[in-house]
Design brief:
Number of strands: 3
CATH class: Mainly Alpha
CATH topology: Hydantoin permease
Largest sheet: 3 strands, mixed
Radius of gyration: 23 Å
CATH superfamily: Hydantoin permease
Number of helices: 24
Distance between the termini: 20 Å
Low-confidence stretches: none
CATH architecture: Orthogonal Bundle
């Protein structure tokens, strides 16, 4: 019986199959169901706008600018940023293909490789990281709010807990807006990213003037020579990769709406370009702060407070708007959906947003942003290693094991082919552990520390190949004939994937 229809490379459920799948309340709700044909309406420009909005944010500025503090010259920092962005774009595009082809969000995609119940494991891992980013952006916004309050009412800064109060107020504001869903900041998001870009250019102009020209502005000397540079380059590049490792997992949450594979591919190719351009501005300005203030100010709020009051007010508002939009638009969706996926008929998106906010506090963003080393090596490096095996398993499952052939109804049906052992794919769990082993060896054995420094890279490769080997004869795979039996191909120019 035909349960799904393939049109121009996009697969949707038939009306009858959708009606049957919708009866399984523990697996189906309006956020988790596959997209309909009409909902595949995102063109390349929409994806380009999405990436521009996500790249033009305060954490990107800090990631790029901090490379000057780590001892790199401006061109070494740009090279590192561009290299990492190009590397992580590969898994992003590979995973995005599945979202576009089958119209499924990340928690449902994870059922494919971990099982209908086991999918909670990768979904919750992604949720924890998303909550951490929520806290980091809330901390930036709280610092900006504190700076504004201190300029409006000078007595504010004499209050001992002023930063904590500002952060708490901004955190509450973020959670309240997030409860309404990403659509709550639709117009605000369209305004915030371009405005932040203009503000970044204004800071670039300030750096040119204050440092005395392009030459002096970019003259911060590299502190890393020879082998020392490469020792720093590798973990910093992996830090850039880890910066987007979360999106490499849950990109189906966005790519599921693509009108075609070509649209999502073309739109997402802007990411490394935008990262390099915005990163260069951040790197140049941070380099200028070395000339002007004698040290690299990689935290933009720390730089902001050194300007006159009117600049602090305007810049603080921009930091606040940026933090809200990136939090509500990107950092809440995956965690809230993951918690919602635990009990689809009981937990709402709003409840998931509240849980995300509470979890963000437990991640202690104030400690993460205390030092650049904490931000890149402790935060980005550690969670990159955590997520690497999930990325490897997802890519290996879709491209090597399934060869692009899925049974959509099975993803929403208890006891079906993706149920594995009572909802858990033990092979995926073993591959996950195997993927973590090389970085852990590097953490515990100093001569092999490079395995920990490059944890994401080694874990994604090892876990991916291990999973493909474990699953090479698994009965959940669909042959070309089985795919043809359940799929109506509504385009003579296409055939079932082989």
């Amino acid at each position: 019986m035909k349960t799904q229809v393939e049109r121009e490379g996009i697969v949707t459920l038939t009306d009858d199959a959708a009606a049957v799948a919708a009866r399984n309340a523990d697996f189906w709700n309006d956020d988790l169901r596959p997209c309909t044909t009409a909902e595949h309406d995102w063109r390349a420009s929409r994806f380009a706008s999405l990436w521009i909005g996500m790249c033009l944010c305060i954490p990107t500025w800090s990631l790029a600018g901090g490379m000057i503090d780590a001892g790199m010259s401006w061109w070494e920092a740009v090279l590192t940023l561009l290299s990492g962005s190009l590397v992580v774009l590969i898994p992003i595009l590979l995973v995005a293909h599945a979202g576009t082809r089958y119209g499924i969000p990340y928690p449902v995609f994870a059922r494919l490789w971990f099982g209908t119940r086991g999918a909670h494991l990768p979904a919750l891992a992604r949720a924890v990281i998303g909550a951490g980013w929520f806290g980091i952006n809330a901390w930036f916004g709280g610092l900006a709010l504190d700076a504004i309050a201190g300029r409006i009412a000078p007595a504010w800064s004499s209050f001992g807990g002023h930063i904590a109060v500002a952060f708490a107020a901004f955190w509450l504001l973020n959670v309240a807006i997030a409860m309404r869903g990403p659509q709550a900041i639709g117009r605000l998001a369209a305004f915030a990213a371009p405005t932040l870009g203009i503000a970044a250019l204004a800071l670039f102009a300030w750096g040119l003037s204050a440092a005395g020209g392009v030459g002096p502005m970019l003259a911060a000397p590299p502190k890393l020579q020879g082998v020392a540079f490469w020792i720093a380059f590798f973990p910093l590049m992996i830090g850039v990769v880890a910066f987007w490792a979360t999106l490499a997992l849950n990109i189906p949450d966005f790519s599921r709406y693509a009108v075609s594979q070509r649209a999502q591919l073309r739109g997402q190719l802007v990411m490394p370009i935008v990262m390099a351009l915005f990163g260069f501005v951040a790197i140049a300005v941070t380099s200028a702060t070395v000339v002007v203030f004698g040290k690299a100010l990689w935290n933009p709020v720390e730089l902001l407070v050194r300007f006159p009051t009117v600049v602090v007010l305007i810049g603080g508002v921009l930091v606040i708007l940026s933090s809200i939009t990136i939090n509500v638009g990107a950092n809440v969706m995956a965690p809230a959906r993951a918690f919602e996926n635990l009990w689809p008929n009981k937990v709402t998106f709003a409840t998931g947003a509240i849980v995300t906010g509470v979890l963000a506090l437990a991640m202690q963003p104030w400690f993460v942003l205390e030092r650049y080393g904490n931000y890149v090596f402790l935060w980005l490096g550690t969670y990159g290693t955590l997520l690497g095996p999930f990325d490897g398993i997802a890519i290996a499952d879709y491209w090597l094991v399934r060869k692009l052939r899925l049974d959509l109804v099975g993803l929403y049906s208890p006891g079906a082919r993706y149920d594995y052992a009572r909802g858990w794919n033990v092979r995926a769990i073993v591959a996950l552990v195997v993927g973590w082993l090389p970085p852990l060896v590097g953490l515990w054995y100093a001569p092999l520390h490079f395995l920990w420094s490059g944890g994401w890279l080694f874990s994604i490769v090892v876990a991916g190949f291990a999973y493909a080997w474990f699953m090479r004869a698994d009965k959940s795979r669909i042959s070309a004939d089985e795919y043809a039996a359940i799929t109506e191909v509504d385009d003579l120019a296409l055939s079932a994937p082989t």
